[in-house]
Amino acid sequence: MIAVELRKLFRRPRTWVTIGLLNALPVLVAVLLAVTDLAPRPGEGPVFLSAVLTNGTLYPLAALAIVLPLFLPIAVALIAGDSVAGEAQSGTLRYLLARPAGRTRLLVAKLLSVFAFVLVTVVVVAAVGYLVGQLLFDVQPIGATIGGAGGTTGLSGTTLTPADIVGRTLLAIGYVTVSMLGVAAFALFFSTLTDSPLVAMLGALGILVASSLLFTLDAASSIAPYLPTRYWLAFVDFFRVPILWRDVVRGLALQGVYVAVLLGAAWANFTTKDVTS
Amino acid sequence: MRAGDVYGFLGANGSGKTTTVRMLLGLVLPTKGEVQLLGEPMPKAARRVLPRVGALVEGPAHYGHLSGRANLALMDAAGPGGSRRTRKARIDTVLEQVGLSGVGRKPVKAYSLGMRQRLGLAAALLRRPELLVLDEPTNGLDPQGIHEVRDLLLDLHRSGTTVFLSSHLLAEVEQLCSRVGVLDRGRLVLQDQLATLTAPTGATVVETPDPQRVRAALDGRVLELGAGRAVVRGEDPAEVNAALVAAGVPVTGLRLQRPTLEEVVLAAASTSADRVDAPGERSRR
Fold first, then answer.
1. Which of B61, B65, B79 comes nearest A99 by C-beta?
2. Which option is the CATH number for B6-197: 3.30.450.150, 2.40.40.20, 3.40.50.300, 3.40.50.1820?
3. Residue A277 included in any domain
4. What is the ipTM for the molecules in this complex?
5. Is B44 on the interface with A (CB under 8 A)?
6. A268 — contact with chain B (CB < 8 Å)?
7. Interchain CB contact of B59 with A (< 8 Å)
8. 8 Å CB contact of B77 and A3
9. Long-range contacts: B229-236, Cβ < 8 Å, 24+?
10. A92, A238, A248, B178: least CB-packed within 10 angstroms?
11. pLDDT digits (tens, 9 = 90+) for B169-209
C-alpha cells in the first residue's frame, strides 16, 4: 500500500513540477547575487544570505531560508491537502476503499508518502543549493567564516570546519523537515474533512498565515510559544557555537504535539466518515 | 438477493439505490441495522469479503495521468487478493473482455467516456469476483457498447458470477435480470422474479380499426376500450380471435396482455424523489 502511494506521488508530473518551481527562486537569487555582488547587509534579508558571497558552502541553508516562510509550506500543503481530498474529488477514493485498501492503512500510507515528499523536497532544495553555491560563489574549504547569519546569530568570526558545516547542515535539514511535518499534518487533517483539495490546502495555509501574523503581535505574546510557525527559523541555532539547543528542542516538541494531535483527529474522522464522493 | 441471480435494483433518482450500494461496500456506515455481503457482516469483514466483490459505483474513476494498464495495476496492488505474479495476465484478460486490449499507453485523461466506463468495468472484473456490484454500468456507452456490455454480463453470469445491477434504465434491467427489487424512498417496496412480475394478466389486447364492434361481439368481456384497441378478458388469443372473426370484426393485431416492467415499477413506487412538491400538494395529486 505504501509502495502504491509512493508510486502514485512520484510518478505524478505535478510532484516534480512543484519541486522544480520551489527551486527556481533560490537559484534566481543566487544568480542575481553572483552577477551583481550585492549581498544584503548582515541582519537584513533571509538568514545566511549575507554570508554566501564569501562562502558558497552556506548556500543550501540560504536556499532553505528563502523557501521556508512561504514556498515550502505551500508545496507541502498542496501535496498533503491533495492526499485524501484529491482522491475524493476524482472519485478514486471510493474504489480504493472498496478494493478494500482499509481506511487506517490508506491514511498511514498517505501520511508516509507525504512525509517522503517533505523529506525529498527539503533534500532537493538543499542539494540544488549546494550545487549552486559551489558553482556561483567562492568556496572556502577550511576554516570557513560564519559571518553573521542575520543580526541574531552574532557569530562573526567563529570558525567551523567543513565537517562541522556538513553535520550541522544535515541537522538543519532534519529540523526543517520536522517543521514541515506540522504543515503536512494540518493539511492532511483538513484533507479528510473536505472533498476539495483546494480547501484543504488553503485551510492549512490560512493557519500558517494567521500564526505568522500573531507572532508579530505583542498582544499575542502569551500564545506565541504555541504558534506552529514560532520555532521554524530555529534551525539557524545549529550554526551557533556552541549549538543553542533551547529553541530547537522546543520547536521539535511543539511540532511533535501538533503532528500527534492532528493525525489523531484525521484518523478519528477518516475511519468513521461516510464516503459519498 | 440470492447467489446466481442477475438482480436488478430499481428505483427513482434519490430513492436510495446508490446509498445502499455504498453501504454494501462499506463506504457509507449505516446508522441503524446491519449489512451483510456474501454472508459476512459489513464493514467488519471488509478485508475478507471485498476482494471477492467487483464494483462499479457511480461512474468510473481513474488516475488521469496514468495509462489504463497502470491504473489497473495500481488498484490491484492497493488491496488484498490480487496476486502480483498473475497481475499482468489478469490485466490482459480483462482488457480483452471489455474490448480495450489495443488501448496502449495513452493516459486515461485522453479516453472517451465510453472507454473510461469499459476500464471501470475491467477494474471490477480484475480479480474474477463472485459478485459484481454495478451501478449504472452502461452509462456513457453507445448502443453498440451497451449491447457488448450486456453480452459480457450474461457471459459472466453463465460462468457463475452473481450480478447486482443498480439502474434506473428499465429496459436494461428487463433485458438482463432474472430478479428485480424496487426501492422507493429508502424502502424496498417490491421484490420478485421478473417473470412473475410481468406474467400475463389473463387478458388479451385486440388491435382493430373499429373497437366499438368488439364490444358488440364480445359483450361483457371487454375490460377497456381505446382508440384502435380493446382489452378483452381471455387467456387464449386464438379463441378471442375466432370469436371476433366469426362476428365479422376486422382484427389487425392480437396479443396477451402483460404489464411492462415500467408499469410494475410505477405502480409500486410513488413519485420521483427529486420532485419536490409544496406541503399538501402530494395529497391532492
1. B79
2. 3.40.50.300
3. no
4. 0.83
5. no
6. no
7. yes
8. yes
9. B229/B205, B230/B205, B230/B206, B231/B203, B231/B204, B231/B205, B231/B206, B231/B257, B232/B203, B232/B204, B232/B205, B232/B206, B233/B202, B233/B203, B233/B204, B234/B202, B234/B203, B234/B204, B235/B200, B235/B202, B235/B203, B235/B204, B236/B204
10. B178
11. 888 888 889 999 998 888 888 898 888 888 888 888 888 88
